[in-house]
Amino acid sequence: MESPVTPHVLVIDDEVDACELVELILSREGIRVTSFQDPWPALECVVQQRFDAVLTDLTMPGMDGLEVCQRVLGARPDLPVIVLTGAGNLDVAVGAIRAGAFDFLTKPTDAKMLLVAVRRAIERRQLVSELERLQGSEAAPVEANGILGASPAMRRAFALVDRVASSDASVLIHGETGTGKELIARAIHAQSARAKGPFVAVNCSAIQPNLFESELFGHVRGAFTDARDNHKGLFLEANGGTIFLDEVGELPLDLQPKLLRALQERTIRPVGSDKEFPYEARIVSATNRVLEDEIFEKNFREDLYYRLNVVRIDIPALRERMSDIPLLAQFFLDGFARKQGQEPFVLTPAAVARLVAYPWPGNVRELENCMERATALCRPGEVSDKDLPDKVREHRATAFGITANTDGDIVTVDALERAYVARALSLLGGNKTRAAQALGIDRRTLYRKLADWEASEPPPPRR
Fold it and tell me: Between 3.20.20.220, 3.30.390.10, 2.102.10.10, 1.10.10.60, what CATH number should domain 411-456 receive?
């Protein structure tokens, strides 16, 4: 087993005291530091040695931090650069960000903010190297029914799929839109004893309420105006196989007792019939909603939740498994190359750096779309950062920080608390339960705060 490599940071600042301070802060955290007061030998060192991040002052004689940033990125596109700036140079710092810098910090540097920024930069650099590490390594990617991943979170999900597939227990799959919930459901079906039976997918959010019972449980001829023939419904169609209730959290509250009864009794009654028919199908459901929160808000029945949630599989958002991004991107590129009859595409380091920095709100589905677009625009055989959409290429990850130079810059505690809670909810995909845990408060307290803030918002202007 390889020993972990000590992170290595290059510091460029013409002030000796500033270099020593940064080195003291970082070395206490086990981070190796090489510092220079002159940018020119530092740039030579960038080419000769491996660094995980560069920290450069903005205002220096001979070469400013903006030029340093440009030269570093020209030599090492995948190397994150953090710019240190005085309060009066923020416009220039923003220019450095637009030129590709990873982040900027204001002087005097706060030790905690410095560590947060440097750790994030080091993580970025290590993630960019993940594609090379995965190829031909012991941490080879795992593939299950078209789902690819090598991250610990996905390996846990795959292991759970393997364990639960042989049983008939109901499974609830939770994950954001675009994470591949239906693929996981199909993997469970494909590995089960029911694999030769039908896999029937039901989009609960797309069924009209007045047609719910007819679609799921069927109807007999003459049950309503358009019922010209008998219809056995999706539950009976799934006999011997698996019925997949997709986006079950979208099901209206008044329809949930009907589904609950069908799950409890293992029988259905077609609309217009006085007979009940047993069905023999495994139940797998999926949702992008946090059903615990929906129960708390009285939008989802607790008894239905427990009937569906015998075994739960959580599919992480793509931003929570960034080490899979280069792997998935290359997988999609290989697929598009085969489809188009072209030579394989290769991602440049600059493209990988942009991909792992972007939060992917549309998850794997959005990444696949991005790669398809890139293959249409790129030069033969190579996908660079210039081939990526503007929102991916220009995105800059931000840290939550507070700076105030005058009393006019100071925000109220209430405004700060609102911003911090909003940031936590954003990072956790809107999951209020997890946000409350991360914030160290009771879930009821979080709900009360959100309700109070919503009530205090001014009404929209009248037109």
Answer: 1.10.10.60
In the sheet with 242-246, reading across from the earlier edge strand, the strands are 199-203, 242-246, 282-287, 171-174, 311-314
346 DSSP β-pair partners: 382
The CATH class of the 152-314 domain is alpha beta
Alpha carbon of 448 to those of 121, 416, 444: distances in Å? 36, 17, 6
CB-based contacts of 293, cutoff 8 Å, min separation 6: 431, 432, 433
20-31 tens-digit pLDDT: 999 999 999 999
C-alpha distances (whole Å) from 442 to each of 254, 302, 433, 455 are 29, 20, 9, 20
Per-residue pLDDT of 180-238, as tens digits, reads 899 999 999 999 999 999 999 999 988 888 888 888 888 777 667 676 777 788 999 99
How much is the pTM? Answer: 0.63
The token pair at 119 is: 């750790």
Phi, psi of 105 (to 5 degrees): -130, 150
Degrees (nearest 5) of the Cα angle 224, 230, 231?
95
Query: Cα(353)–Cα(350) distance, rounded to whole angstroms?
Result: 5
Sketch the domain layout of the chain as residue ranges.
8-128, 132-140+319-393, 152-314, 411-456
In this structure, CATH architecture of domain 132-140+319-393 = Orthogonal Bundle (1.10)
Torsion, CA 203, CA 208, CA 214, CA 216, rounded to 10? 20
**72 φ, ψ to 5°?**
-65, -45
Q: Are strands 267-268 and 277-278 parallel, antiparallel or unpaired?
A: antiparallel
Is 80 exceeded by the pLDDT of residue 130? no
Architecture per CATH, 8-128 = 3-Layer(aba) Sandwich (3.40)
Domains 8-128 and 152-314 share a fold: yes
Whole-angstrom distance, CA of residue 85 vs CA of residue 104: 7
Side-chain-side CA neighbours of residue 214 (13 Å): 19
Q: Quick one: 123 exposed, middle or buried, by C-beta within 10 A (0-12, 13-18, 19+)? A: middle
Q: Is 266 left (phi over 0), alpha (psi -120 to 50) or beta?
A: left
Contact by Cβ (8 Å): 177, 361 = no
Amino acid identity, position 14:
D
- Residue 328's Cβ-count burial label (10 Å; 0-12, 13-18, 19+) is buried
315 with 174: CB under 8 angstroms? Answer: yes
